[in-house]
């Protein structure tokens, strides 16, 4: 849809624009949308986590410098494009990478450096809490970080007055409100789907577990209040406006929606918040999130349980590795072509090789690949050793070779998804695919449909990202009508019934992928031996 610059200019001048900001692992992105939910300006700021001792972290200075830098880049984009300053906005939302641990004392001082999701230092805590709750507690979760600090007898724990996520921290500083959107909260501590709040039974179990430690707090007292999308999460204060825009131009008073995690904003950006829908992001890593009709029958350590921004239960299968090894092979073919005097655009090379894969045998002709650049907990493999294997009688040709690497890119994800589809018998009506794997039309989509055993759709807007997703949640907070659900709002007002280009799974592809994945699982001992022997 085209943008009318004069209308956008007037909207900005009148303070009717909505802004979304998401702090990702390597980039902070700011998006401004109009009243039709179309992005009209954007800004970004590149940042990287740092290793502080043995903790992966971002400093408070990093956080505020990055947040302000991304916002100012958007403001600059507005000025250059529309010739106006951003003085007032109708609403804003803040999102960030989920999980992690930010703990503060009663004077609001950060007690220890922010511990991000990337840290794998809470193994004992995660195991013990999973056993206690009978609910999967991944190492990334905030409660695992808190309990590991207790197990480590860290001095700071006695002084904790509040702990939250990165998005929750920023929202608190912007509004003075200690709240958290339910999707982000579900990465802190298990959610009771009936009450749409932290699980009281498990809170009681935790308090009893640490009762002999003599802390002056109970768990509920030091956690944020859980809010659903659209609920009152406060407005931007004078202090908050000055923090976001140190120039002093931005006025206070904007509605601030409940802060969310990157999983929730991804669901909003792909219109995947309704029951029996899901989205799968496939790039350097790959993860699928499916909105469930009911609880799973048992605990699966391979599956994370989170929620949508409205509190519906979501099962997430996550794999650290997806397209890195596939991309490396494509680059090798480019290098070969250049050595032969043939130069081609990378998009053309990808399209040629990906489409050739569709000519291969459905089971890849007996070829096998592991694209593990890093370890995978689902499998399990501790470290990465990319590996390609074949037998003398395998059907070794270009089509099968490329198909093998496409299958392998989704191998670990499929193992996780098979738990949901085959063991738990969950029903999936629609999956929205986004990410680099889907850039070549029809190929990654077809392979993904075979892996997921469900229809996969791709929409142009899927590439807008989480900053757009949190902007949509902020817009919902100010524009929803009484009783209008987020699902209805997204369907009717944002996506307008657009379900993208849909592809049903092919029966032959599914059968071939099943044969491949059995070979993939049988050969894992070879991959594990490579980790041990190739150092």
TrEMBL record:
Gene3D superfamilies: 3.30.420.40. Keywords: Kinase, Transferase. The keyword Translocase does not apply. Pfam families: FGGY_C, FGGY_N. Residues 279-477 form the Carbohydrate kinase FGGY C-terminal domain. GO terms for molecular function: kinase activity. Residues 18-243 form the Carbohydrate kinase FGGY N-terminal domain. CDD domains: ASKHA_NBD_FGGY_BaXK-like. SUPFAM superfamilies: Actin-like ATPase domain. InterPro entries: ATPase_NBD, FGGY_C, FGGY_Carb_Kinase, FGGY_N. Belongs to the FGGY kinase family. This is FGGY-family carbohydrate kinase.
């Amino acid at each position: 849809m085209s943008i009318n610059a004069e209308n956008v200019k007037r909207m900005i001048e009148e303070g009717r624009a909505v802004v979304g900001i998401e702090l990702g692992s390597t980039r902070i992105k700011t998006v401004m949308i109009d009243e039709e939910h179309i992005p009209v300006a954007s800004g970004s700021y590149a940042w990287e986590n740092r290793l502080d001792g043995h903790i992966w972290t971002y400093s408070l200075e990093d956080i505020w410098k990055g947040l302000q830098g991304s916002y100012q880049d958007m403001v600059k984009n507005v000025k250059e494009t529309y010739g106006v300053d951003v003085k007032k906005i109708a609403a804003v939302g803040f999102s960030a990478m989920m999980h992690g641990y930010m703990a503060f004392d009663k004077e609001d001082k950060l007690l220890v450096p922010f511990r991000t999701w990337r840290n794998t230092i809470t193994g004992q805590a995660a195991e013990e809490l999973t056993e206690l709750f009978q609910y999967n507690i991944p190492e990334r979760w905030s409660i695992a970080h808190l309990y590991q600090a207790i197990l480590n007898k860290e001095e700071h724990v006695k002084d904790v007055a509040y702990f939250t996520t990165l998005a929750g921290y920023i929202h608190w500083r912007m509004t003075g409100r200690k709240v958290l959107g339910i999707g982000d909260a579900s990465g802190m501590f298990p959610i009771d789907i009936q009450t749409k709040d932290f699980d009281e039974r498990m809170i009681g179990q935790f308090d009893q577990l640490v009762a002999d430690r003599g802390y002056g707090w109970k768990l509920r007292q030091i956690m944020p209040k859980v809010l659903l999308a659209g609920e009152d999460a406060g407005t931007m204060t004078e202090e908050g406006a000055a923090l976001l825009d140190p120039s002093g131009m931005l006025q206070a008073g904007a509605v601030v929606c409940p802060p969310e995690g990157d999983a929730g904003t991804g669901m909003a950006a792909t219109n995947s918040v309704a029951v029996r829908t899901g989205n799968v992001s496939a790039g350097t890593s790959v993860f699928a999130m499916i909105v469930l009709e009911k609880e799973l029958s048992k605990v699966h350590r391979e599956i994370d349980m989170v929620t949508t921004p409205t509190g519906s239960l979501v099962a997430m299968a996550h794999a650290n590795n997806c397209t890195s090894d596939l991309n490396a092979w494509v680059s090798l073919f480019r290098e070969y072509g250049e050595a032969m005097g043939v130069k081609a655009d990378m998009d053309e090379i990808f399209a040629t090789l990906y489409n050739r894969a569709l000519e291969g045998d459905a089971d890849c002709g007996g070829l096998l690949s592991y694209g593990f650049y890093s370890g995978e907990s689902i499998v399990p493999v501790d470290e990465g050793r990319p590996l390609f294997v074949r037998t003398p009688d395998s059907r070794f040709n270009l089509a099968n070779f490329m198909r093998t690497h496409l299958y392998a890119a989704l191998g670990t994800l499929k193992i996780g998804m098979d738990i949901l589809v085959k063991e738990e018998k969950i029903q999936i009506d629609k999956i929205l695919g986004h990410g680099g794997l889907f850039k070549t039309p029809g190929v990654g989509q077809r392979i993904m449909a075979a892996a997921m055993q469900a229809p996969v759709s791709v929409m142009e807007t899927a590439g807008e990202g989480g900053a757009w997703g949190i902007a949509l949640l902020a817009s919902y907070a100010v524009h929803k009508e009484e009783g209008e659900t987020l699902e209805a709002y997204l369907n009717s007002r944002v996506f307008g019934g657009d379900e993208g280009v849909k592809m049903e799974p092919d029966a032959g592809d599914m059968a071939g992928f099943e044969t491949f994945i059995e070979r993939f699982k049988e050969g894992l001992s070879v991959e594990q031996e490579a980790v041990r022997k190739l150092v």
